[in-house]
Specification:
The complex is a heterodimer of chains A (327) and B (125). By secondary structure, chain A is α+β, with helices and mostly antiparallel strands. Chain A contains 15 helices and nine strands. Chain A has two domains: 153 residues, Cysteine proteinases (Cathepsin B, Chain A, Alpha-Beta Complex), CATH 3.90.70; 84 residues, Serine Threonine Protein Phosphatase 5, Tetratricopeptide repeat, CATH 1.25.40. Classes of the chains: A alpha+beta (327), B mainly alpha (125). Chain B: Keywords: Membrane, Signal, Transmembrane, Transmembrane helix.
């Protein structure tokens, strides 16, 4: 096909394409949110907010990952330079940084990155606690992405704009519509930094807090995980997952009675299969064969993913002498 | 790669089978990471896969130009669940870095407009 024929066929496709784009634009405008419409109560009291104390590290070429991470770590009280972080998160062959490596690098600097719910008000809420938000944007298109990390530091409701530390720009003012577009295309990923020794941020859910802490267990920091889970059981006492997580950290530290009491608290809330299995395992290790089997009998139905684990536990319980005393 | 990988898995499986005889205590606990990710599986299988994922991810980072000792430290910092997620689709994961793709996109748009006859940028040059 010659260039001329290609041109002709493109010309035929031009107006349909234009109308399609225009239509897409219209629908985007129709749902464009306004900051004033958000359910976040404090927006009415504080129509303008900006965390001016947040540090700023102008990004080197492609290095928005290290720069954005240094920004939020600095705001959380850990001063680390983007140069140091580049060795921990930058990938030359990809001209960028992976989300999971940002999470891992935060842990390296005594912080955990807690994921936020993929909703606009969830991303704004941490600013009220003086916590800037690290987020992923796609500045390109779905098919031709241009990934970018930036840090949300403020809002301006009358102007319907957000304020970000972004790339080489200390104070990027972005219309809410454009922000939502780029954040949407980036998969609505956003995190806040938190100190695992402090109470969890007001703006995070129990599950997201526990998910952020859990890697510390396999990172051989169960004592830090235990502290953070204890805080979780205080904040969310009726959350069974918090008690199960606390039990796992206590178990890793060799505290069998402590693990058992946390698991008992968990199954009192919900007779969860994983909690009952772990309760049985702890009882086996304490020599309580009968009590271990009792816990296993409460599992109904057995989730397929846990079938082999539960079968192992049952075998171990049955192998114990029934009259052995609990330790 | 395929050969190397099967060689590694063979060795690792053999090593893990011998190891599993002296780590029975852990085998039947469901970990917190499994609970939050909903990926509960046999603990021994998870250990073997975690080991393989570690080697895979480290090799991929080195291929992308991360120095070997840095790659080693970075992989050590990842939890088992994180490694596994990475090993599954590290190629497809977004790498935020403000790449210069947009220049290519602008060029493409200009070229299309030119071909369609809306603009005359290239003929005047």
């Amino acid at each position: 096909m010659g260039l001329r024929t290609l041109g002709a066929s493109l010309r035929r496709a031009f107006w349909p394409a234009v109308s399609f784009v225009a239509l897409a634009g219209l629908t985007a405008c129709a749902v464009a949110p306004r900051l004033e419409d958000l359910s976040l109560a404090s927006l009415a009291d504080r129509p303008q907010l900006e965390l001016t104390q947040t540090p700023f590290y102008p990004q080197e070429l492609h290095q928005c990952g290290p720069a954005a991470l240094a920004t939020v770590l600095g705001a959380s009280g850990q001063t680390v330079t983007p140069e140091t972080l580049a060795d921990e998160v930058y990938i030359p062959g990809r001209n960028g940084s992976l989300q999971v490596e940002l999470l891992a690098a935060a842990r390296r600097h005594q912080r955990v990155a807690v994921q936020l719910a993929p909703k606009l008000d969830a991303v704004l809420a941490p600013l009220l606690e003086q916590r800037p938000v690290l987020l992923l944007q796609n500045l390109g298109f779905a098919r031709a992405p241009r990934w970018h990390y930036a840090v949300l530091v403020g809002w301006d409701a009358p102007a319907n704009e957000l304020i970000l530390r972004s790339g080489g720009n200390r104070r990027e003012r972005l219309s809410l519509t454009r922000f939502v577009q780029t954040w949407d295309l980036g998969g609505r990923w956003a995190v806040v930094m938190a100190d695992p020794r402090q109470p969890p941020p007001e703006s995070v859910t129990a599950r997201d807090w526990i998910a952020a802490i859990a890697p510390l267990e396999s990172q051989r920091q169960p004592d830090l995980a235990r502290t953070a889970y204890e805080a979780a059981t205080q904040r969310w006492p009726s959350e069974t997952l918090a008690w199960q997580a606390l039990a796992n950290a206590r178990y890793a530290l060799g505290d069998l009675p402590g693990a058992e009491s946390a698991l008992q608290a968990a199954v009192d809330i919900t007779p969860d299969a994983a909690a009952l299995n772990n309760l049985a395992q702890v009882r086996i290790e304490r020599g309580c064969a009968v009590a271990a089997l009792q816990a296993l009998q409460l599992i109904a139905p057995i989730p397929p993913a846990l079938a082999s684990t539960i079968a192992d536990t049952r075998r171990a319980a049955e192998a114990l002498p029934a009259d052995a005393g609990c330790r | 790669m395929g050969n190397k990988r099967s060689w590694i898995s063979g060795t690792v499986v053999a090593a893990m089978l011998s190891v599993s005889s002296w780590v029975p205590a852990n085998a039947a606990m469901v970990t917190t990471e499994q609970m939050v990710s909903g990926q509960a599986r046999d603990a021994r299988v998870a250990q073997v896969q975690g080991f393989l994922a570690r080697a895979d991810v480290k090799q991929q980072l080195e291929t992308w130009g991360v120095a070997s000792e840095l790659a080693e430290a970075r992989v050590a910092q990842l939890s088992d669940a994180e490694l596994e997620r990475l090993a599954m689709n590290i190629d497809q994961q977004p790498a935020g870095g403000d790449a210069l793709v947009v220049i290519g996109v602008v060029f493409l748009v200009l070229l299309i407009l030119e071909l369609v006859g809306v603009t005359n940028v290239f003929t005047t040059i």
